[in-house]
Amino acid sequence: MFPVTKMCRTFKVSPSGYHRWKTASISARAAENIKLVERIKYIHHETDRIYGSPRITACLRDEGMKVSRPRVARLMKKHDIQSKMRRKYKVTTDSQHKYPISPDLLNRNFTADKPGKVWTSDITYVRTREGWLYLTVVLDLFNRRIVGWSMSDRMTASATVLPALEQACVRCRPKPGLIFHSDRGVQFACNDFREQLSYCQMIQSMSGKGDCYDNAVTESFFSTLKKELVYDHTYRTRREARQSIFRYIEIFYNRIRKHSSLGYLSPDQFTLLKNAA
Fold it and tell me: What's the pTM?
């Protein structure tokens, strides 16, 4: 549409330099970067902008590409491809009760050498236009898998921790002696829940008062859930939130999402790998 000399003058480049650029062939590295950026954008889009450079690098390596994380990070920064940012959230635990407190048996050792040995659990809040939705999860420390969960509009033990524990037991059928670790919330300390743990032949463990680091793995899951899903949505109803969280846990998190502490495998992939070994 415009003469070359006029465009070169506007962009402050020489006509000879423009013609050299136009006739020069693209380098192999540049061509490889173009293809790499296309794959990065595709993975970023398919994971709903959740993955940063470490997990995208793991995905690319799964596809057989030999690429380093710094290179992926550099290309993502150059093309303004960013993962969702973490927000702060308020931990809300009602520990002002007169029920007995169980000792902390983990002492921040969040590892297990086999599934069904240590479970951790907690409750969080999800805002909807209808009101709060309370999500309880039970997580296996061996593979970081969510083995049980419940969602309710009430904070009673019968609506939160008990159904989550029941689901986990039905799914996994744990052997006697499993350690069940949680905070000091009234739902975990009440008689009904303790009786259910005793019936299941589980050993109760509780974190220190007001110390979220004593239950860091479950807190980390909630932080990830809110960063990657909840903060991106405005839920009109509790039912809408339930469906969204169900898909995240059962379809994405347990089966697909790459976990840094599992060597960038999903909980299900990690379990299959260990079973094969």
Answer: 0.72
Sign of CA dihedral 42, 47, 51, 55: negative
Size of the chain, expressed as the number of residues it contains? 277
Cβ partners under 8 Å of residue 188, min gap 6: 121, 157, 161, 182, 204, 206
Q: Per-residue confidence of the chain (277 residues) as pLDDT tens digits? A: 899 999 999 999 998 888 888 887 777 888 888 888 888 888 888 777 878 888 899 989 888 888 898 999 998 888 888 876 655 544 455 556 689 999 999 988 999 999 999 999 999 999 999 999 999 999 999 999 999 999 999 999 999 999 999 999 999 999 999 999 999 999 999 999 999 999 999 999 998 776 667 789 999 999 999 999 999 899 999 999 999 999 999 999 999 999 989 999 999 999 999 998 7
- Residue given tokens 């479950």 in the structure block: 218
